[in-house]
Automatic annotation (TrEMBL):
<dbReference type="GO" id="GO:0005524">
    <property type="term" value="F:ATP binding"/>
</dbReference>
<feature type="binding site">
    <location>
        <position position="372"/>
    </location>
    <ligand>
        <name>(6S)-NADPHX</name>
    </ligand>
</feature>
<keyword id="KW-0808">Transferase</keyword>
<dbReference type="GO" id="GO:0046872">
    <property type="term" value="F:metal ion binding"/>
</dbReference>
<dbReference type="GO" id="GO:0110051">
    <property type="term" value="P:metabolite repair"/>
</dbReference>
<comment type="similarity">
    <text>In the C-terminal section; belongs to the NnrD/CARKD family.</text>
</comment>
<dbReference type="InterPro" id="IPR029056">
    <property type="entry name" value="Ribokinase-like"/>
</dbReference>
<dbReference type="InterPro" id="IPR036652">
    <property type="entry name" value="YjeF_N_dom_sf"/>
</dbReference>
<dbReference type="InterPro" id="IPR030677">
    <property type="entry name" value="Nnr"/>
</dbReference>
<feature type="binding site">
    <location>
        <begin position="124"/>
        <end position="130"/>
    </location>
    <ligand>
        <name>(6S)-NADPHX</name>
    </ligand>
</feature>
<comment type="similarity">
    <text>Belongs to the NnrD/CARKD family.</text>
</comment>
<feature type="binding site">
    <location>
        <position position="318"/>
    </location>
    <ligand>
        <name>(6S)-NADPHX</name>
    </ligand>
</feature>
<keyword id="KW-0511">Multifunctional enzyme</keyword>
<dbReference type="GO" id="GO:0016301">
    <property type="term" value="F:kinase activity"/>
</dbReference>
<keyword id="KW-0456">Lyase</keyword>
<keyword id="KW-0413">Isomerase</keyword>
<dbReference type="InterPro" id="IPR017953">
    <property type="entry name" value="Carbohydrate_kinase_pred_CS"/>
</dbReference>
């Protein structure tokens, strides 16, 4: 159930289902019934319900829900934004059935304001342009009301593919969607408008997903758990990999230590900080279980990495930008090891991103890069400026660079070069704190050291980082994250057993 379908993919799911013999009217009946059930489980008989319908099939679902709820004895009023005689197909039929018993009314703002529940059935997958006029007024009235708002499929005004607000949008408490959730339920700002998202089964068979080629997922343990193995009795630390984190100069060593601590905590067998000679004393005096080695420049790093048991490198946090960093990144990418590129390792390639991508091309070991929006725009200026959905930005960058791209933010997107994409939704607001990104790159570095594939390691890393932030709670500083990972791992291990 982790697949997320864009509105056009969902339209294809509908079409395939209808072609296989289930009439659209049956799908609409089931969708409307699911909405009615969502209202009825939350509200006792007697609560006043207003259903606000739009001109398409989303409105059609609203007509069905209104009829079911009225049939159960709720006081229901139905308001149509648009003209009843312009309704078409299944929606027109659903409207006709409603009209046999009760009227279709124009928008009555006072009634919307006074309702205990408002069902928002204005627009769903067919939203085609920004809302204005009466539709925008209806949204304003719904948002101004006191009652609970239950959105049908999507909060009206939210783009189901991108999560963007098209002019204005309904703020829902609950959204009832069908078959699978949509990217717009999780990409910001859509996530903040959707409230709790419920998925209703309307009889679409999961095998349509193969035909559609669904490649976007919600980031959750089901996506990667089978690739993660808790330590085994028969194992020893060497089978869990040896991660190296490259430290910056004496004044900026903390980032590497945060990453190293996280790599060890997530389960890498051994972790070494590769320290410039003049920072050795600083690093050594702060580290215990993490080892430290004095490494001078790119050449020194090459010497350390000649030992191929050191199978993963995290490079970038606190490193400083410039040709020296470019040289070290080249060294790290030239050999049989997994690599996590973050922060200054990314920014240092702003003048020659193609050179970086050429080094990544054809590698058999994973490369994961973890840019925030600013770093992303330095490496992929055209993709950043193209006005694409966040999922497409990350996907195109992954395809171009050959790396797994973790495009960070409150709705981090993880994309693989083969087109798989995951949207993360578990990061609490207080996770955006100094050093948090360094911890993330260390977690991912630890997971690739353990042998996880790049996409799964990146997705699990982002999820575990969010879960640790949630457990640590408000007031979190980056140092709290690695300790909080213990609870996260314990729960995952219990789940996996
Ligand atoms: N297909 C199925 O079998 C099933 C579909 N299901 C349901 O159908 C929904 C999708 O239905 P849909 O495709 O009819 O689109 P919908 O969201 O109702 O909007 C289209 C209408 O709105 C109009 N319009 C658009 N933007 C506008 C704007 N800014 N301002 C004003 N008008 C605007 C647009 O007009 P037009 O662009 O043609 O001028 C058109 O009239 C889906 O979300 C789910 O709820 C379920 O029943 C399960 C089975
Ligand atoms: K809606």
């Amino acid at each position: 159930m982790l697949e997320l379908l864009t509105p056009s993919e969902m339209g294809e799911a509908d079409r395939l289902t209808i072609a296989a013999g289930t009439p659209g009217a049956v799908l609409m009946d089931r969708a409307g019934l699911a909405v009615a059930d969502a209202v009825a489980t939350r509200h006792p008989l007697g609560h006043r319900i207003v259903v606000v319908c739009g001109p398409g099939n989303n409105g059609g679902d609203g007509f069905v829900a209104a009829r079911v709820l009225a049939g159960r004895g709720y006081p229901v009023r139905l308001m149509l934004v648009g003209e009843a005689d312009r309704l078409k197909g299944d929606a027109a039929d659903a409207a006709a059935r409603w009209r046999q018993r009760l009227p279709i009314e124009p928008l009555d703002k006072a009634a919307v304001a006074a309702a205990d529940v408002v069902v928002d059935a204005l627009f769903g997958a067919g939203l085609a342009r920004p809302l204005d006029g009466e539709a925008a007024e209806a949204v304003a009235a719904i948002n101004a009301g006191r009652g609970e708002v239950v959105a049908v499929d999507l909060p009206s005004g939210i783009n189901g593919e991108t999560g963007a607000v098209m002019g204005v949008a309904v703020k829902a408490d609950v959204t009832v969607t069908f078959f699978r959730r949509k990217p717009g339920h999780f990409l910001l700002p859509g996530r903040e408008y959707a409230g709790r998202v419920r998925v209703a089964d309307i009889g679409i068979q999961p095998d349509v997903l193969t035909t559609i080629g669904a490649r976007c997922f919600l980031n959750a343990p089901g996506l990667w758990r089978e690739h993660w193995h808790p330590p085994a009795v028969s194992g020893h630390k060497y089978v869990r990999g040896h991660a190296v984190v490259v430290s910056g100069p004496v004044a900026t060593t903390g980032a590497a230590r945060l990453a190293a601590g996280a790599a060890l905590r997530i389960g890498a067998g051994l972790v070494t900080v590769a320290s410039p000679p003049d920072a050795l004393i600083v690093n050594a005096s702060h580290l215990t279980a993490v080892m430290v080695r004095s490494v001078d420049g790119a050449e020194g790093l090459a010497g350390l990495l000649a030992d191929h048991r050191l199978n993963a490198v995290v490079i970038g946090p606190g490193l400083g930008t410039g040709p020296e960093t470019v040289a070290r990144v080249a060294t790290v990418l030239d050999g049989p090891r997994a690599v996590v590129l973050d922060a200054d390792a990314l920014t240092s390639h702003r003048d020659d991103p193609a050179g970086l991508f050429a080094r990544i091309a054809g590698r058999s070991h994973p490369v994961v890069m973890t840019p925030h929006d600013g770093e992303f725009a330095r490496l992929f200026p055209d993709i950043a400026a193209a006005g694409l959905p966040k999922t497409d930005r990350a996907r195109q960058a992954a395809a171009r660079s050959g790396a797994v791209v973790v495009l960070k933010g409150a709705d981090t997107v993880i994309a693989a070069p083969d087109g798989r994409t995951a949207i993360n939704d578990n990061a609490p607001p207080w996770l955006a704190t100094a050093g948090s990104g360094d911890v993330l790159s260390g977690i991912i570095g630890g997971l690739v050291a353990e042998g996880m594939p790049g996409f799964e390691a990146a997705a699990m890393g982002v999820w575990a980082h969010g879960a640790a932030g949630e457990r640590a709670g408000i007031g979190l500083i980056a140092e709290d994250l690695a300790p909080a990972l213990r609870d996260v791992l314990r729960a995952l291990a219990a789940d996996a057993s």
